[in-house]
Amino acid sequence: MYVMKTFLLSALICATQLFAFAQKDTLSITLENVDYAYPVQYFALKVENQDVRMAYMDVKPKVEANGKAVVLLHGKNFGGYYWGNVIEALTEKGYRVIVLDQIGFGKSSKPIIHYSFHEMAKQTKMLLDSLSVDKVNVLGHSMGGMLATRFALMFPERTSSLILEDAIGLEDYRTFVPYQSAAENYQSELKKSAESIKSYYQNSYFPEWRADYDYLVDIAAGVIPSADYPRWAMVSALTSVMIYEQPVVYEFENLKVPTTVMVGTKDHTIVGKALLNKAEQAKHGLYKELGKATASKIPHAKLVEFDGVGHIPHLQVFPQFMEEFLKALR
């Protein structure tokens, strides 16, 4: 019954998202013209002497509260807009759900600064402090997995559990991907198009493309015609350097919180994949192996594998994902 209900819920939310982004208008780089599933609020911060705003959703339980809070941390190419189905399912189970757009992403400000997982973790804690939220269960997807790991390492007393959903950074990209400076990454970002983004998403994120994934491309490509796109592109370049230069792979053994490692066995994500030849690409980004290796490094970690699934289980196999996610929270 739960699987059928969540499947129908996922389909409904995806249909809503498709409707919301059916008009492929130019988007602002802070996504003002993108509707999120729940009301968005803003948290004021000062970063490197710049006044910035962090966008977030704080969604209360739809049923009697169970007293637990969940934080959802997005991947590099996404924002809070792709968590709608997960938020709905969690709030129906009594969880309070907090979804952040990190500074530089989604509806948040796009300052030109030194981007750091340590700083992002600290800012996440500052937001939680402002909301009087003490302990949280933290789910990080893709780049959010690197950030969630850093948060749990810095603030273990605030972390009830850590769930990594196809986290990047399960290997050290510096050891096999050629270095690219922010300036070089910036030039690559400026060359992106709707076609190249869709091709990347099709080849990197999902074994089979479905129409309900199109809204992801509409948002990522919708900012390209904006006059402010160069700023978006530079922020993306700077955060690519952050991922490359700030690995967490050597610190998994230091985690002291209950951890679940979730991976799609068809995930072959490599940050900087285009810089590798075919032979090198075939040797890395193998999540079927990386999931096991990562779980073995983390004390008492649990491994969950989604057979035949790519980089985003919470979209591709939502019912199965939620089943395992709720187990991890218990």
UniProtKB/TrEMBL annotation:
Domain AB hydrolase-1: 69-315
Tree of life domain: Bacteria
Keyword Hydrolase in annotation: yes
Extent of the signal sequence: 1-20
Keyword entries, A-Z: Hydrolase, Signal
GO-annotated molecular function: hydrolase activity
One Pfam assignment: Abhydrolase_1
Protein name: Alpha/beta hydrolase
